[in-house]
């Protein structure tokens, strides 16, 4: 899947993912490191949520005689990803933004206003992508 193509986010939660990918592409072009960091983190969190638990091991003797545990065939070791609903994807992004707000508060209390400001900007950017307002590069 091409992470920079919005249409690659097909599926129920694809709208938010497509907007995140589009915002990431715009941020990369604008060299906005703060936005790139936040957007990559959110897309990574969504990717982690889509991961499935590994199944049982392949039966002994199947696969390659040269590599232990190998599975024969193109894509034979791939597992299908979970499909997240739009609400689940939105909740993941909101959690990411909330974590940044909490960390910003902690940084502020510790006297690091510059770091707190960066985290607050990341949180605002993630929430703006959810509402499709004020996307980076616009």
Please supply descriptive tags for the structure shown above.
single chain, Hypothetical Protein Yqey, Chain: A, domain1, disordered C terminus, mainly alpha, 138 residues, 4 helices
Overview of this protein structure:
With 138 residues, the protein is an all-alpha fold. The protein has one domain (6-52, 82-131): Hypothetical Protein Yqey, Chain: A, domain1 (Orthogonal Bundle), CATH 1.10.1510. The protein is built from four helices and no strands. The chain starts with 13 loop residues before the first helix and ends in a 7-residue tail after the last helix. The model is unreliable at 1-10 and 133-138 (pLDDT under 50).
Brief synopsis:
The protein has 138 residues and is an all-alpha fold.
Helices and strands in order, then pairings?
Layout: H1 14-30, H2 33-50, H3 86-109, H4 113-131
Helix pairs in contact: 1-2, 2-3, 2-4, 3-4
Provide the gyration radius in Å: 19 Å
Number of helices: 4
Overall 3D shape = elongated
Based on DSSP secondary structure assignment, what is the total number of beta strands?
0
Structural class: mainly alpha
Largest sheet report: none
- The fraction of residues assigned to DSSP E strands is under 5%
**Poorly predicted runs of 5 or more residues:** 1-10, 133-138
Any idea how many domains? 1
Using the coordinates above, name the CATH class: Mainly Alpha
CATH architecture: Orthogonal Bundle
H/E element sequence = HHHH
The CATH topology comes to Hypothetical Protein Yqey, Chain: A, domain1
Mean of the pLDDT scores? 82
């Amino acid at each position: 899947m091409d992470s920079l193509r919005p249409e690659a986010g097909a599926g129920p939660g694809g709208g938010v993912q497509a907007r995140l990918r589009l915002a990431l592409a715009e941020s990369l072009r604008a060299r906005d490191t703060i936005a790139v960091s936040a957007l990559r983190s959110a897309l990574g969190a969504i990717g982690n949520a889509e991961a499935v638990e590994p199944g049982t091991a392949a039966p002994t003797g199947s696969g390659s005689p040269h590599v232990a545990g190998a599975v024969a065939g193109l894509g034979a070791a791939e597992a299908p990803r979970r499909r997240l609903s739009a609400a689940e994807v939105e909740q993941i992004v909101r959690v990411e933004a909330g974590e940044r707000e909490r960390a910003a508060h902690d940084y502020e209390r510790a006297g690091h206003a510059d770091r707190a400001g960066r985290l607050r900007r990341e949180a605002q950017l993630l929430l703006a992508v959810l509402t499709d307002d004020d996307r980076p590069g616009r």
